[in-house]
Amino acid sequence: MKIKITAAILVSMLFTISSCTDLDEQLYDRVEDGNFGNTPKEIDALVGGAYSSLRGFADGISNNYPTCEYVFFLNETVSDEATIPTRGTNWYDGGQYQDAQKHTWKADNRMILSAWRYNYTGIAKINSIIYQIDKSSLTANAKAPIYAELKALRAYYYYNLLDLFGNVPIVVDFADTALPTNSTRKQVYDFVEKELTDAIPHLTGNVVYSKMTKNVAYALLARLYLNSKAFIGTERWQDCIDMCQKISGYTLAPDFFANFATQNEKSPEIIFAIPYDSKAGTVGNYMSSMSCHYLHKLTISPVGDYPWSANGMCAQPGVYSEFADTDKRKKCMVAGDQINLATGTVITMDNGEPLTYTETVTSVADAKENEGVRLGKYEMKAGETWERDHDLVVIRYAEILMMQAECYVRLGSADLAKPFVQQVTARAGEEMPATIDLNFIDKELLKEFTFEGRRRTDNIRFGTFFLPWWEKGTTEAYKAIFPIPSTVLTTNKNLKQNPGYPLN
Amino acid sequence: MNSKNKRIVLHQMWTTKSLVFMIFMLFLSAGMFAQGKKLVTGTVYDNTGTVLPGASIIETGTRNATTTDFDGKFSLEVAVGGSIEVSFIGSTTQKVQITAASSKLEVRLQNDGYQLAEVQVVSVGYGTQKKSDLTGAISTVTADNLVKGTISSTEQVLQGKVAGLNIIRPSGDPAAGATLRLRGGTSLTASNSPLIVVDGIAGVDINVVQPADIKSIDVLKDASATAIYGSRGANGVIIITTKSGTKGVSVVYSGLSSVGYVADNLDLLSANQWRGYVRQTGNMDAVDYGGNTNWQKAIEQTAISQSHTLSINSGKVDSGFRASIAYLNNEGVIKKSGLERISGNVNAYQYLGDNKDVKFDMGLFANIDKWHPIDYRIFERAYNLNPTIPVYDANGNFTSVGGNIYENPVEILTNRTVDNERHRLLGYFKTEVKFLNDFQAVANISLEHNAVAGGTYKPTYAIMEGRTEAGYAQRTYAEYTNAQGELYVNYSKVFGKHSVSALAGYSYLENIYQGFGAQRSGFVSDAFGYNNLGAGYNYRLGDVYSYKGKSNLVSFYARANYNYDGKYLLTATVRRDGSSRFGENNKWGTFPSASAAWKISNEDFMSGTKDWLGSLKLRVGYGVTGNQDGIGEYKSLSILGVGNDSYYDPVTGTWSLAYSPKQNPNPDLKWESTRQINVGIDFGLFDRITGSFEWYQKNTDDLLYTYEVPQPPYLVGTMLANVGEMSNKGVELTLNADIVRGDKFTWNANLTLGHNIQKIEKLSNPTYKTDVIYSGSLHGLAGMSGQYSQVIAEGYPVGTFWGFRNAGLDENGKIQYYNAAGNVVAESALVDADKTDLGNIQPDLTMGIGMNFTYGNFDLGITGYGMFGQKALNATNMMLNDPTRLPSYNVPDDFLGSGITSSPKYSDYWIEDASFFRLQTLSVGYTMPLGFKNSKLRMYIMGENLAVFTKYKGVDPEIGLNAQDGVDQTGLAAPGIDKYNNYPRPTTISVGLNFTLNN
């Protein structure tokens, strides 16, 4: 009997110990959003997230690499400067790149979805940071400049959406989870303009690399006004010039390629950039690896000490020959025989043919391995890792010069454009033409900003976007903006497709 | 009671026994002188040749009887010319004629199939029941029937043994586990693996237990049986009962050595075939590297494996213990791969009190696995590489021809070091107390601990990811602990013809996972391997990490059984589970069930059929179960985390980490809920055949999936939510027959058949709209980024291939297609609307079959299993039959004659019928009695995976349910795609020895 009693006590003790119905989740390696943003360092860590969002994120679409790569792909492949041809079986990927080249994209194109997600993820992230700041213990005065910085960054994303999709929903409140409806392109335009204008008084007037400053906001407004005609049908050339003239503290880097060097943060020309650093583990910005042939690494290092390359994007035929041989900028493309540094001879591809990048490309649907001139604008050097060190240049001073030049030409004062163009051509080692016309400006923009992800916007503004070019016929006017991605329309019935596109 | 007393008790017991025996012998010797009578002695064995203590011997027509002693021996004085009947519960009674010559008899009793089933005890969760009293669908496999051979994952022992339970090994890698799917699975993202219960402890790793320590496995299949496990019961429950000390003393050694070789390779061009092709086509550019390499063979090896198990068993009246230790070294058929395991198990129990009132029971399982994961990308390389490339160049270095996906696979295998080690530990302590006559209280506390430590080094000269990183070293550590406390009370009482039992209990589970890791690159010397990370000069943010999380599950459960006159049986259960993982609005779930059974054969009106219909039982059950595995910790909360979100501070020129929101919170998140109805019939025929037939239908609601959500307003474009509905219905048949039951010759056969139809019923609800989910990703195949081969759509099962229908090759060798209108068109004319249903990966029939023969001391066993009617995408073939591959890359032999000129494109041209039947094991053994106390030695030879009968053209038709790089993911998202992921299966020949010493 004693045994029974002892055991019964033992058992009931166990029961007492374990008698618990607490189901609260205990956090160890993360924090709930209500418990953060109370110290200056925590605020910095929150705002920092708005900047890191610019690199994009793994969205499961673009090979799980950061999405800003796909946004870049999209803008480049639909423009007249780059293409991603299908090589054998490689780079077919459901025909999405061929559709981009032929301007036959559909609403389910994954690059388009990726571009949408990139921008709206950035916006949602900034909205959530604003929500955190709202809840923090900072004073209203202390909050004002933080809000300004965040809203101006958010305006950058909305500018992208204005440019890419036009009639997009405007969402500014993190706590509001109602399904939004489209705003008109004009409303989005006005929103971007107002947000930037309102932010400017609170932003720093200093030159601060990679941060949202007065200068960056001016430059974004200048871009907005430059494309105002294309966006909403209203010309604002003079407003563009006025904004450009407010920008101060930058000069052209004497060496064009200093802007694309591994240490390009030292360039005096860069107004806004998205920083990358291999030691910070930032993945992305590896365009040369997306472009060069698999064996290209042997031209960089005799032992092939260079990351894997995918043999994808190349220049459209005709772009390379647009450059005069004397143009220093021509080296932004890699062409011709590729020499193996170990042997000193031309590299032999696996099929036995020499690796010679040709300007011609047989067709976008069936290109040979070696066809197409490659993107070599950013520095490639032996020992680089998959995580690159050069920063992605978004706005540099040359663009401010060229915007003013273009606006003066458009306003009929080509002479006033000269001093601006002069600086750009002089650095390239080129002569100024006798007369500066829009055609010259268009070609100069192509050469100055090759593969900088902005050619589509220029093509649309100059109207060339709608004319036939390599492997593309005439483009309908409605394609100046992309369709709203089909999965977005499926999940939000309040949204309407952009005009001209099939409903789903 | 102290140990001194205990020893005295034992001593007394032995004395008493000896005394009884002596008196007994005295009686016998007295009878020797009786007229016309004869003293017969003998030994009784069971069908396996083990001695049977406690068997009854009765002289026919008299009350003259005895029972066998501890060693199965008996002696009885019997009239000459008469006979004796030898019987034992669960065996057929055997009559032996006694003649003047009869002296030392050897009687071997055969199993009586359904009598055995009647008395078999089955674990039902928190207790046991007699098999004959079950009301739910439960299959039982006992130790004798487990699959044997070179087994490194415990799941394998059940292959083909349980109707409706599919066990799929995605590869022949000894370190790869198997996937269990009961009745089709119920979830898109969550785990579809049944809940594993070991000795009453739920939710443990099945491999914590070694096959040699298993006594029996009960598979709870329908909801009425599994609802007692509530939110974890939807995919079935596998209850493993391990061996514990049984009466007597024995020492058992089992050893096995085996040789394994790759069962089948792809037929690719040899170097000479390649040269022939180049000569024929006059391709002047083609590069002949001068070698003669079969790249598949170059990465393969003959696998030499061995295993040794030693166990000690000792059992007395009120205590017992069993201990075992095992060593296993399974080499893989791919170089460097394999699995080495050392494991141990101790179990001890002690009863206290006069009527065994209190029982203390404890067990400990521990094992250590060591293995070297290989990079599965080598298989694609082995298929790609030109056969004229030699493995080594003239200087003895690895050749390195630089192409895309063209790295030397032997170099990858050789130069890379990956050492992983896993420790598994499970310990429990159980107390059972009887009180108030009819009650029993059980308290069980347990701890499971599972830890994996890894080290990887890619030296500075390694072609893949070594050179570019200048050496890369990594260490990782991850662990989880699973602490549980259970307390339950059993009640049982018989009132005349009514018998009632009931159970009520509480359990608390706390799961903690945590880990850390570090990596560095940039090594001046390769001397340290992964042992000195500090020596790497290249340090990146995010190169060190650690994490920790916790969840808990609190449950209350109850069960009631009612049995009237052994004819009508009722069971009802309910469980209430609360989980910290569930969203704020759905913290608690209730899971009820009810079932009934009618033992028709026990009815009086059935007495006329007794001679052929030994037993007949009808069962009906309904229940609701859940699946909560798909919900990770903290998924319902709005959380800020630190990930790889670094940002640059231009003032200091340094990088810092941002704190960012990580997910769309979902406060409604909850378990997936499955309602299941099951009707079953158990029967016994002609004293030889037993079987069960089951019909079931199950509907799963609130399917978890990472649904597309509108962005904006959501933070990210996808969110984990409970939306869809899925159904599974099917039938199962289990048969067991003693075909021949002779003295010397016996023949037993068993068969399991399963048929399941799965359908997605719904994917949308008022909040979330999904038309179709694209699945079966072809990502990673050249030119197929972002491409999908399957759909998850309403009205179709998971794993439905969706694409273009081919119309064969045209005269130019281009694959033609049918458009939606049924006309033959070229590839360029296809539009999305032409895509259609191309079949699915769900088998129409799954089958397991086994046969055992004995002839005297010889035994022969055969097992096999098959799946029929399922489709597979042979993506390997699709990519290899590419006209642009030659001359650079290798192609299949068949390609040259195929005339194909189109580039790889996904269509049903590459979808094949993957039906197969595998001859899993064939063994021949000989048992040699050692002449004392039934000690014996069994020697055997066994072949595994001796033949596969299939029309499938790939290496192996048994393709992982979701195999990506050989790693089976939990969900059902990308099944049935043969995508360069074939770690080839070995054919293995083993020689083994079982040595049983009884004392």
Automatic annotation (TrEMBL), chain A:
Protein family per UniProt: Belongs to the SusD family.
Keywords, alphabetical: Cell outer membrane, Membrane, Signal
InterPro entries: SusD-like_N (IPR033985), SusD_RagB_dom (IPR012944), TPR-like_helical_dom_sf (IPR011990)
PROSITE patterns linked: PROKAR_LIPOPROTEIN
Protein's organism: Flavobacterium panici
Domain SusD-like N-terminal: 96-226
Any matching Pfam family: SusD_RagB
Name this polypeptide is given: RagB/SusD family nutrient uptake outer membrane protein
Coiled-coil segments: none
One GO cellular component, as annotated: cell outer membrane
Location(s), subcellular: Cell outer membrane
Domain (RagB/SusD): residue spans on this chain: 247-469
TrEMBL record, chain B:
Keyword terms: Cell outer membrane, Membrane, Receptor, Signal, TonB box, Transmembrane, Transmembrane beta strand, Transport
Pfam families tied to this protein: CarbopepD_reg_2, Plug, TonB_dep_Rec_b-barrel
Stored InterPro entries: Beta-barrel_TonB (IPR000531), Beta-barrel_TonB_sf (IPR036942), CarboxyPept-like_regulatory (IPR008969), Plug_dom (IPR012910), Plug_dom_sf (IPR037066), TonB-dep_OMP_SusC/RagA (IPR023996), TonB-dep_OMP_SusC/RagA_CS (IPR023997), TonB-dep_rcpt-like (IPR039426)
GO cellular component: cell outer membrane
Topology in the lipid bilayer: Multi-pass membrane protein
PANTHER family: HEMOGLOBIN AND HEMOGLOBIN-HAPTOGLOBIN-BINDING PROTEIN 1-RELATED, TONB-DEPENDENT OUTER MEMBRANE RECEPTOR
Family label: Belongs to the TonB-dependent receptor family.
Name of this protein: TonB-dependent receptor
Source organism (scientific name): Flavobacterium panici
